[in-house]
Structures are given as structure tokens and as C-alpha cells.
Amino acid sequence: MICGFKYRKNQCFAEKFPHYFLRQAITLFIMVSLKKKICNYIAKEWISKSKSNRQFADDHGIDEKVVRRILKPEGSGISLTTLERICEAREIKISELFQMIGE
Fold first, then answer.
1. What CATH number is associated with residue 39?
2. What is the pLDDT of residues 79-88, one digit of tens each?
3. Is residue 1 part of a domain?
4. HTH cro/C1-type domain: which residues (predicted)?
């Protein structure tokens, strides 16, 4: 058995349903890739043009530590709530942000 998820007597769930795990892995990869793209866009187009990280945070109703997470090269730190706050402060819809990014 390759994994610890038992499906039936000694049969691994991953062996029985490999397509399920592949689909989950692809979905996760796309989400991580999209988050990185969103963070990089916000960092380059908006935060870098702001007076400071603190000013951007205050203007957009988010915490400064979130701004620092967005600025990380791996761009992993943004939630849907944060995205909504930033878009609301800029008076745009999330769908408009995706169009700007090119998704």
C-alpha cells in the first residue's frame, strides 16, 4: 500500500481512485499559481506605487502584515476577504481585477 487511506481491505484509496488525487493536485497547483499571479500583480501595479506599505494597508482596510505577505516573491498571502477589501477600496469588482491580470 502506497498511502495510509484504506478503501477496502488493504487497498489504498489512491490506488483505487488515482484520478481523484490527480484532479486535486491539478486544482491545488492552479490555485497556488493564480494566487501568485494575483499577488504579483497587486505588488507591482498598486503597492509599489503607494507611498508606503502602511499607507496601502490603511487605504485598503487591511493589515500591514498582509501587505508584506503579498510582497513576498512567492506571493502566497492573499485571501478572498483581502481581495474583496482591496477591490472595494479601489471601487472595482473582483472580475475586473482578473481582467486586468489577464485571467
1. 1.10.260.40
2. 889 999 999 9
3. no
4. 49-101
pLDDT tier at 1 (50, 70, 90 boundaries)? Answer: very low
Instruction: For residue 56, give the C-alpha cell.
Output: 496601502
pLDDT single digits (tens) 11-38 = 565 566 666 666 766 766 666 778 888 8
CA distance 47 to 53: 7
Domain hosting 10: range is 6-101
**Residue 19, in any domain of the structure:** yes
What is the secondary structure of the chain as a DSSP string? --SS-EEETTEEHHHH-HHHHHHHHHHHHHHHHHHHHHHHHHIIIIITTSS-HHHHHHHHT--HHHHHHHHSTT-----HHHHHHHHHHTT--HHHHHHHHT-
